[in-house]
Amino acid sequence: MISERLQRFKYIFSDYIATNVAWVLFNIVRFYFLDTNRLEYGSLTSFLTAKQLVLGQIFLPLLMLCIFYLSGYYNKVFLKSRLQEIVSTFCTSFIGMLVIYFIVIINDNVPDRLHSYELMAILLGIMFFVVYSFRFCITQIATRNIHRRIWNFNTLIIGTSQAAVKLEEKLRTSKKSMGFNIIGYVEPCAEHNTRKLNLPVYPLDDLGKLCENLDIKNLIIIPHRNGMNATMNLINRLFSLDLPMYISPDLYHLLTTKARVSNVVGEPLVDISKADMSESTINIKRVSDIIVSIFVLILISPLLLTLAILIKLDSKGPIIYKQTRIGYHKKPFNIYKFRSMKVDAEANGPTLSSLDDPRITKLGKVLRKYRLDELPQFWNVVKGDMSLVGPRPEREFYIKQIITKAPYYSLIHQVRPGITSWGMVKFGYASNVDEMISRLRYDLLYIENVSFAVDLKILFYTINTVLTGKGV
Fold first, then answer.
1. pLDDT of 115-148, one tens digit each?
2. According to the model, what pLDDT value does residue 264 have?
3. DSSP secondary structure string for all residues of 96-161
4. Distant-in-sequence, close-in-space partners of 178: CB < 8 Å, separation ≥ 6
């Protein structure tokens, strides 16, 4: 079995070589296409070794790799869709062509506009053909090896019911494998299964170490025999393993009211470990988060310094308040906030704040009203703990209570938590678990409809909330 890292390196390296080849081929055509190039440089060798073209040979392939990364092409390296690969390659080649044209080709002495369009079309054609040819070869070899079961991915089925056995048999006996190498079952109930199965049965409590020892790459979840709530509690436990988790589309539809289907050997399964976002959206959203957060931190640094001084003068205690929250794939992290409460605010245990909470300091009321206490979380975004927009992260203490009433809460771990969210805009701060659950509905709605347009709309309403002082 080839590693995912090695396969990704193959694509990156081949794209680098392909764009270098494409640039050389284009410049050869470019030399003979324009009479001015032949008159100015005399020979093809002189033209190809010109300073501008050599610099292009060095930097333009690196620029194309950045475009390819933002497109999300390197996110999923196995079982790529041929149609999506063609579309992705064409779109990124088109964007790369435009960038290269306005950086390099626009300076050429072209007799008329038609020649410029022809050059652009030639560059696009060469870039697409060369890059896709390299990619096609790598994808073809990988897909063939997976279909023939030369390459496979160790997989566990969570469940020991008859449905689990039937699914294992379908995956094992299908003519074309999709890489799911089922090596065992996991018994989700406390009592061990007594039926004899053709593969080992493992206890749920040992799943973390088991996945590490057996190099598990996928989990397939069969609905729990005790019903929907038990299934969602099970999913909530599995999120922390940070592995792809597949369920039937029927079950996913019941959870979210939005069907997503991924064909797997005639047995459609849905990966619920990731939100329904395109790979390009995932990458561009992350890069945008970093750029915007760094820019904002630099821009508001005088305000941050001023607030830090005021907090220190207002009451005793640290300026920055750290608290452990649960984030993407249930990973705990320290969230940073300007301290708006007294030091001993939770001496008696976790307690949610209310409108007239006596624990809030005088300055804290202002900070919370205008959401200024949340500003240090831009650093959480830079670190990768959070996003600008996403479901608000909660503490494990409250998550356990929410799960008992709303097991579907676990689905918010599909994305990074955010500084602001649809729930915060529509609902605001929650003072009890029931209000958390009410706010949760907006966060789940966001996950089902995540896009840049939705993010911009939420950010716009958040700015309005800050400026009008409607934070509480």
1. 888 889 999 999 999 999 999 999 999 999 999 9
2. 46
3. HHHHHHHHTGGGS--SSHHHHHHHHHHHHHHHHHHHHHHHHHHHHHHHHHHHTTSS-EEEEEE--S
4. 79, 146, 147, 171, 264, 265
Residues 21 and 9: their CA atoms lie apart, in Å, by 18
Q: Are 328 and 410 within 8 A, CB to CB?
A: no
Segments in 323-451 forming alpha helices (H) = 362-369, 377-383, 396-405, 422-426, 433-448
User: Nearest to residue 335, comparing CAs of 321, 355, 316?
Assistant: 321
The superfamily (CATH) of domain 153-271 is NAD(P)-binding Rossmann-like Domain (3.40.50.720)
Quick one: three-class SS letters along 93-112? Answer: HHHHHHHHHHHCHHHCCCCC
Phi, psi of 250 (to 5 degrees): -65, -45
**Which is nearest to 413 in space by CA: 384, 434, 392?**
392
What is the amino acid identity at position 260? Answer: R
Residues 183-189: what's their mean pLDDT? 89
User: What would the two tokens of residue 347 be?
Assistant: 């001496």
DSSP for 320-335, written as a single string: EEEEEEE-GGG-EEEE
Q: Rounded to an integer, what distance in angstroms lies between the CA atom of residue 366 and that of residue 311?
A: 11
Contact 319, 363 (CB under 8 A): no
* Residue 183 CB neighbour total at 10 angstroms: 16
pLDDT band for position 253 (50/70/90)?
A: low
Distance CA 401, CA 399 (A): 5
Crossing angle of helices 301-314 and 362-369, in 10° steps, is 150
CATH 3.40.50.720 domain span(s) along the chain: 153-271
Helix axes 51-70, 4-33, angle to 10 degrees: 140
Residues 403, 410: Cα–Cα separation, whole Å: 8
**Block residue for tokens 């040992």:** 206
d(CA 262, CA 270): 6
CB 375 within 8 A of CB 335: no
Nearest-angstrom CA–CA distance, 248 and 253: 9
* pTM for this model (two decimals): 0.85
Please state, in angstroms and rounded to a whole number, the distance separating the CA atoms of residues 424 and 391: 9
> Using an 8 Å Cβ cutoff, are 179 and 143 in contact?
no
| Region of residue 79 (phi > 0: left; psi between -120 and 50: alpha; otherwise: beta) | left
